[in-house]
Amino acid sequence: MGLFDIFKGSTPAEKAQKLKKKVTEKYGEAAARQKAIEELVQTGSPDVVPVLMQRFTLLVDPQTTDADEKRMVFDAIVAQGAPAVPNVVEFLKKNDAASSWAVKILSDILPEGEVVGIVTQELRRLGVEYTRDPEKKEVLLHFLDGKQDPQIGDVALALLKDMSDDVKIAALRTLASVKDPRAREPVLELLAHDETARRVQTRCVEFLQETALEVQGFREKVAARVSEPFFIDKSGVVKKRGS
Asked: I need a labelling partner for 115 at 20 to 30 A (CA). Which of 16, 146, 148, 152 fits?
């Protein structure tokens, strides 16, 4: 009896759990890991998606092998289409790592508007509380950059109050990309606050220059934060010399 013959008769979900260790074995033999992935892919069942998604959470050497295996998993999940979506969304909720892969998969299966809805809902769930690794919020905000949906401004504005400076900066970038005018006063307040980190203040100044929103009501405080090559013109708009 071959190694994988013991799984004959198992349900896809049972097979996935039995093969999970092999699929996620970072230092194991590549051939064994790939065989386990292939076994799950061949089921074509959405029940194996939770385990397949775990492959995105680890990096193996060499990088070419890592890339090939992740592409194999990515293509297999996308090929399942809509049946895979609930498990991909569940993975996104439960895992901090590999958020970008989850969003890429959803983007290949669903219309953009539906993915925006999933991402904004997850950002609302995460809220502004401290997280050990803020990268997930940054990844989700980056996906929203430049997209047109009223939900985007709402979640990005809320995240200007996040505990992480990196998340604040990501939220400022997103708000600048969607040019939400509601951001004017919250950004000016963030810029003027004495406890705001210098790099966040710098991004606030860049936001004001990119959006051409006036600093009316905050001019004196903003002027104290603006330095070359930025300046405030007579109309109260932040400009950048040479641009």
From this structure: 16
Q: Could you give the percent of the chain with pLDDT greater than 70?
A: 96
Rounded Cα distance between 53 and 98, Å, is 8
What own/partner pairs with CB < 8 Å and gap ≥ 24 does 9-17 have? Answer: 11/47, 12/40, 12/43, 12/45, 12/47, 12/48, 13/45, 13/47, 13/48, 15/39, 15/40, 15/43, 15/48, 16/40, 16/47, 16/48, 16/50, 16/51, 16/52, 17/51
State which H helix or E strand residue 232 sits in: strand 230-232
Q: Are 12 and 45 in contact (CB under 8 A)?
A: yes
Q: Tell me if 15 sits within 8 A of 7, measured CB to CB.
A: yes
- What is the SS3 string spanning 119-150? HHHHHHHHCCCCCCCCHHHHHHHHHHCCCCCH
The answer to whether residue 214 scores a pLDDT higher than 50 is: yes
> How big is the CA angle at 22 (ends 21 and 23), to the nearest 5 degrees?
95
Locate tokens 């993915």: which residue? 115
How far apart, in Å, are the Cα atoms of 130 and each of 99, 125, 164? 18, 13, 7
Confidence of residue 193 (pLDDT cuts 50, 70, 90): very high
Cα–Cα nearest to 113, from 157, 74, 143, 155: 143
For tokens 């890592």, the residue is 66
Q: From CA 39, how far away is CA 137, in angstroms rounded?
A: 33
* C-beta separation of 40 from 15 below 8 A: yes
